[in-house]
Structures are given as C-alpha cells and as structure tokens.
Design goal:
Elements lengths: L8 E2 L4 E6 L3 E6 L1 H7 L2 E5 L6 E2 L4 E7 L3 E5 L4 E6 L8 H5 L7 E4 L12 H10 L1
Antiparallel strand pairs: 1-2, 2-3, 3-9, 4-6, 5-8, 6-7, 8-9
Length: 128
C-alpha cells in the first residue's frame, strides 16, 4: 500500500477529498480503490451544476473487472469535472492522488470533519 497523503480526508467509500479556496472540495479515489478496481476504462462524470448531498452517489468508474459508484463527501454543488478522464481514465490508475474526478462547492466545509484522516483510513483498509 502506498503512503497516504496526510493533507487529504478519506471516505469509507474510498474517495479522497481536499479542501481548496472558496470552500471547493476536490474529489478523487484512493490508491487502494484503483488497485481493487484494476485498469479503469471509463469514468461517468457528474453534471456541473448538480446539487449533491454528502454520501450521495454522483459518479461511476468502470474497470475491466467491475463498475463502482462514487459518492460526494460533502453537500453542495458540482462546480467542475475533470473532462480529461473521458479520453484517458487510466490517469486515475497512474496517479490516484493527483488525478481528481470532480469538485463540489460546499457551504459546510465542516462536513469534512466526518471523514477519516490518513491513519484512520489506513486502519480501515487493513481490516478489510
């Protein structure tokens, strides 16, 4: 297992979240998730402008093995999606912590406190 960035927060559903300026939360999937999925072949991005609630399914990643739902870690509005994933979803396999999938502008950045830090996420995946 690779080292988990301490600057990120982690959901039990294997998304990472990074708070940026203006209460925008950048979201991707963890190295553990991409390893479990295998080679990604398709990403269904959420629609910009969509309102989402924390823990609401809003995107899908598909691999040669399976499809997996992605969930928003916070409540808010989808303000940006990573269009480059439409042509090259394998970016997620190559650099999971640099490759984001979507951004949510939240009014409640404190919702990130409900997510795990790197140590808690590491403990969870080791127990799986």
């Amino acid at each position: 297992m690779s080292d988990l960035p301490n600057s990120l927060k982690y959901a039990a559903t294997h998304e990472w979240a990074k708070l940026e300026n203006g209460n925008v939360v950048r979201v991707g999937i963890t190295d553990f998730a991409q390893q479990e999925l295998g080679d990604l072949v398709y990403v269904e991005l959420p629609e910009v402008g969509r309102q989402v609630k924390a823990k609401e399914q809003c995107a899908v990643v598909e691999s040669v093995k399976t499809a997996s739902d992605l969930y928003s870690p916070v409540t808010g509005e989808i303000v940006e999606v990573n269009e480059s994933l439409s042509d090259s979803p394998e970016q997620i396999n190559d650099t999971p912590y640099e490759t984001w999938i979507f951004c949510v502008k939240t009014a409640e950045a404190s919702e990130l406190n409900n997510l795990m830090d790197a140590d808690a996420y590491q403990a969870m995946i080791e127990a799986e």
